[in-house]
Amino acid sequence: MSDILQGLLVGILFGIVLQRGRICFNSAIRDVKMIKDNYIMKLALLAILVETIGFQLAAQMGWITLHPLALIPLAQIIGGFMFGIGMVLAGGCASGITYRIGEGYITSFVAAIFFGFSASAVRGGPLTFVNKWLGQPITTTNNPGNYYAAKDGAVNLTIANWLNINPWIIALLFAIILFIIIVTWKTTERKVSGLNWITGGIALGLVGIIGYISQKTYALGITGGWVNLFRTTTANLDVTKPLPYNWMGMEIAGIIIGAAIAAILAKEFRFRAPKDPKTFAQVALGGILMGVGAGVAGGCNIGHILSGLPHLAISSILFTIFAVLGNWFMVWYIFERK
Amino acid sequence: MSNDIKPTYSLDERGEVCPVPDVDTRRKLKEMKPGETLEVLVDYALSKERIPTGIKDVGGEVITIEEIGASEWRILIKKV
Questions:
Q1: pTM of the predicted protein model
Q2: What percent of chain A has pLDDT over 90?
Q3: Less CB within 10 Å around the terminal CB: N or C of chain B?
Q4: ipTM for this model
């Protein structure tokens, strides 16, 4: 099966799980602080736990090599914080605004277009120069057990290769910590009509593992997919040198299709638009902050949080911390400030 | 029947961005007096599922949730 067809199919599966689980990392991070509701956070933690073991096992079986994302501390700190602020304004994370297009949210469509457009601008477009201000990747030559993809001997930093110990040790420790948090943290009551936090968390984790085995070079991602869609669709003026659509670009198309199918079957599809036109300006600004942030940081809430944390990549840990801080800061600014 | 109850206040949150329906509902409940009722119209499934638990600490209690259209709900809340 061709790469792009696989990407499309994994995307459809991903879109169905996102829609049925109402999975949004903006809600997950925000609700823990704002309304002391941990329902989606627990779903996300469970998915990360499933992937932590799954990625390591897939690498052990020789199906993949682990590809942690590059560590450029300033990029993950500044980009993560911008992304965190942006998703509050946009009313959804990168995957949230993507799958909600399939549910008929006009605001998500606007946010996603500005997100893809700005991410393309900093990744190979006219704003590429900003990456120079943020520095070069910090790598290691340690590759314990040869689990990691190396480029000229350089490997992107994770906790395991930084300490030069078998990545299974760190993966199992992380999995145990997550497991303890999940079982001891009382779940907020919620009557759901789709997937609950347990079935949704396991399904999301499994789609992540399938995605990695299919794409090979990484698990699920959103930012790179939107950049591919934009670049290939708009920049290809020389027809003799086509820029191909790739796995991740087709995964984005699949998410929208999958979410639309799930929403239509559940009778949840509907074109929705806010009454106040200012909301469109707000979500567009949110999309721009998210696009620039995820663009320079090398990933969004899916690339760095869902797919990156299971690698225990230093870049992804840093991004996650600053995305959470950015989200909480903006939640306070918009909703909690007197 | 919930249809017979004329709510004291009404909020139309259809089309609003997450989590505006939840936040507006909580803000309204905070300024309401005990015994008063609030009707909230939403078209966002996540808000419909999250509001019942999210309003407890501001004295809100859901009386009914009824589907009034395709992905449209009317949530009737009482301030206790």
A1: 0.94
A2: 93
A3: N
A4: 0.88
